[in-house]
Design goal:
The chain has helices at 21-34, 71-79, 228-250; strands at residues 17-18, 38-42, 47-51, 53-57, 62-66, 83-89, 92-98, 102-106, 109-115, 120-123, 131-132, 140-147, 150-161, 165-169, 182-190, 194-209, 215-224. By secondary structure, it is α+β, with helices and mostly antiparallel strands. Keywords: Bacterial flagellum, c-di-GMP, Cell projection, Cilium, Flagellum, Nucleotide-binding.
Length: 252
């Protein structure tokens, strides 16, 4: 039966569904070997925790992932009718779900286990390929927001960027989360490339609990009426990040 993932809406997923066990195990091992983080989502997208793949027990058909930050959060995950997982691996969004999570221990610390999924969704939207932005040198985005009756150009850190938009962290909960809300006169500072000016339209939001227990809000925004010149600038920056990423992987 085809699963419905909160981030995909009504999009037809069948062309992207992977049911080969061998391929599924390879994807999960990829997350573990590359240390890629995964969002663990409950309450139909209302709550999310950052996790990672700790081990794949092929013999017992079990996937072991990092636990949520505290016992209450873990209990909510275990009791959730469906838990969705969404992570980015080598340009591709990998998504799956489970309703059978249990508490376990891994190397002496709390963890969660679930059956290896029978199928996963693998999405690669080439036209809007998104790439994670550097953690060491965060990209800053300035958005005019009203706080206490005054207009403030608030700073936000980007999580990823594509030619279609950005995802950013709203730690102070300053942005209006109404889907379709448009912010004018926004600026995104792309290191070594330059500052782009754009409108940003709110598309989605998600409360995240990080591994250190800190909470933040992840906000997905679409570029609105991006000029061809600005689009080219964004493409140049994405290509730059991709070159740097490939250089790190190859050791050049």
């Amino acid at each position: 039966m085809q699963a419905n993932y909160p981030s995909l809406g009504t999009e037809n997923q069948s062309p992207y569904q992977v049911e080969s066990r061998r391929e599924i195990l390879a994807l999960l091992r990829g997350f573990k070997e590359k240390g890629q983080l995964i969002s663990m989502i409950i309450n139909n997208g209302g709550e999310a925790f950052i996790t990672s793949v700790l081990a794949i027990d092929d013999t017992n058909n079990q996937l072991i992932v990092d636990s949520a930050p505290d016992n209450m959060a873990n209990q909510r995950v275990i009791e959730s009718p469906t838990v969705f997982f969404d992570g980015l691996l080598d340009k591709i969004s990998i998504q799956f779900s489970s309703s059978k999570l249990q508490k376990t221990q891994f190397e002496g610390r709390p963890a969660l286990q679930l059956p290896v999924p029978n199928s996963v969704i693998r999405l690669q939207r080439r036209e809007n390929y998104r790439i994670n932005t550097p953690v060491s040198t965060p990209i800053r985005c300035l958005i005019p927001v009203e706080t206490d009756g005054t207009l403030e150009r608030a700073k936000f850190s980007l999580v990823d960027i594509s030619c279609g938009g950005v995802a950013l962290l709203d730690d102070r909960r300053l942005l209006d989360m109404t889907v379709g809300k448009v912010y004018d006169d926004c600026e995104v500072d792309l290191p070594t490339i330059g500052v782009i000016e754009t409108q940003l339209e709110i598309r989605n939001s998600q409360e995240l609990t990080l591994l250190n227990g800190k909470t933040t809000r992840r906000v997905g925004c679409a570029f609105k009426d991006l000029s061809n010149r600005t689009l080219t600038t964004v493409q140049r920056y994405i290509m730059k990040l991709e070159r740097e990423r490939n250089a790190r992987l190859t050791g050049i």
